[in-house]
Amino acid sequence: MARKDVPPRRDRKMQQRLARGEAAALGELYDRFASLVHSLAHRVLADEQDADAVTREVFAHVWEHPETYDPQQGPLRSWIAAVTHRVAVQRLRDREEPEQPRREELESEVRRASVAARADYIVHSMPAPLRAALDLAYFQRRDYRQTAADLGVTEDEARRRLRLGLQLLSTAHDAGTPPGYRGAV
């Protein structure tokens, strides 16, 4: 969580380089996001080979269709995550038609993966002060008083940040697509 989101200006430049067909741009993008793409695909598909195939497919899509990314809709990272989720879910659906119990299990897996992907998007899109408060409280197991002290803010401000962060995360279960998801694959 220490890493800041990439500024939209950098994302626009990357998109322009891809549109010009700069192979180096694709390599840089792959270096930045391959682990994200692979882990999201693996979370949906629970299969290493399928996750590898989805990773290749996502970067092929990015290379062939850089114009489908709109920097005004959000960071490049979020768009790539949304494309990955869409490709992985489609691959899951394209698998052999399962028997009813397996079908329900797959649908449940898709719902869980969707919620996880949306939560990941929300966490990385929320303002840094909210992320920092949640990181301290939930990953480092600090109470709101310790969080306030670590952040150098009042206890009321720490509680406010935690409450807002949790409210944002609670929307991960809501239906709908994340902002920045253009559905283009």
TrEMBL record:
According to the UniProt entry, its GO molecular function terms are: sigma factor activity
> Where's the RNA polymerase sigma-70 region domain?
29-95
Q: Which domain of life is it from?
A: Bacteria
- A Gene Ontology BP annotation from the UniProt entry: DNA-templated transcription initiation
Is Transmembrane helix a UniProt keyword of this protein? no
Keywords of the record: Sigma factor, Transcription, Transcription regulation
Determine if Transcription regulation is one of this entry's keywords: yes
The entry's family comment says: Belongs to the sigma-70 factor family. ECF subfamily.
For this protein, the record's PANTHER family field holds: RNA POLYMERASE ECF-TYPE SIGMA FACTO, RNA POLYMERASE SIGMA FACTOR SIGZ
**NCBIfam families from the xrefs?**
sigma70-ECF
Protein's name in the database? RNA polymerase subunit sigma-70
Upper lineage is: Bacteria, Bacillati, Actinomycetota, Actinomycetes, Kitasatosporales
